[in-house]
Amino acid sequence: MDLEELIHNCKKGRREAQAELYRRYSGVLFGMCLKYSKNKAEAEDNLHDSFVTIFNKIDQYRFKGSFEGWIKRITVNTVLQKYRKEQHLNIVSENHGEEVEVDTERLDISLSTLLGYIQELPNKYRLTFNLYVLDGYSHKEISEMLGTSTGTSKSNLARAKMILREKIEKENINIA
C-alpha cells in the first residue's frame, strides 16, 4: 500500500492502516523521543502519546509537504507540551557567556555514551540542546516552543554544552 492510500485509510480510522503506519514510522519517531527523554521508558511513553496525537490529527494532513516532517513536528510538539504541562521547564535567566566548543576529533566516546549524557541533562538543557543542535531550530523558534526568551534559550544551550563537555572530558580522562 502506498503512503497516500495508507494515510487515507488512517483518516477513515482503519486499525490495520494505523498499525502499518506505526510499523513504518515508529523507529524514526522513537529515535526522536529518545533524544528528548530521560530514559527508554519515558521515550516509549512519549512515542505512544505522539501516535495518539498523530491519529487524532491525521485529518488535518493535507498532502502538502513531507508527511514524515509533519509527524516529526507533531512528535516534538507532543513531547514539549508534556514537559510544559508537567512544569519540568523552569525559566532561568542564567548567562554563561560564550559558546563552548568541543574538539570531537580527539574524543574517544561511543554514540550510546553520548546519548546517555544528553539524556542525563536537566530537561530545560536537554530540550534546548536537542532542538538547536540535533534538529536545527533557531533560538527564536526554541523560545516560542518552550515559552522562554531567546536569551534563555542561548543560555540553556551554553550550559548544556558545558555540562556535556565536562562529562566527555571526564570520560576521556578515565579512558586514557
Keywords summarizing the entry:
globular, 8 helices, 176 residues, mainly alpha, single chain, Arc Repressor Mutant, subunit A
Q: What does this protein structure show overall?
A:
This protein is 70% helix and 0% strand. By secondary structure, the protein is mostly helical. It folds into 2 domains: 3-85, Orthogonal Bundle (Rna Polymerase Sigma Factor, Chain: A), CATH 1.10.1740.10; 104-175, Orthogonal Bundle (Arc Repressor Mutant, subunit A), CATH 1.10.10.10. The longest helix is centred in the C-terminal third of the chain and has 26 residues, at 150-175. It is globular and about 55 Å long. Mean pLDDT is 85; it is low at 88-106.
CATH superfamily assignment of the largest domain?
A: RNA polymerase sigma factor, region 2, helix turn helix motif
Low-confidence stretches: 88-106
String of helices and strands: HHHHHHHH
Helical element count?
Answer: 8
Q: What is Rg?
A: 18 Å
Categorize the overall geometry: globular
Q: In CATH's first tier, which class of the largest domain applies?
A: Mainly Alpha
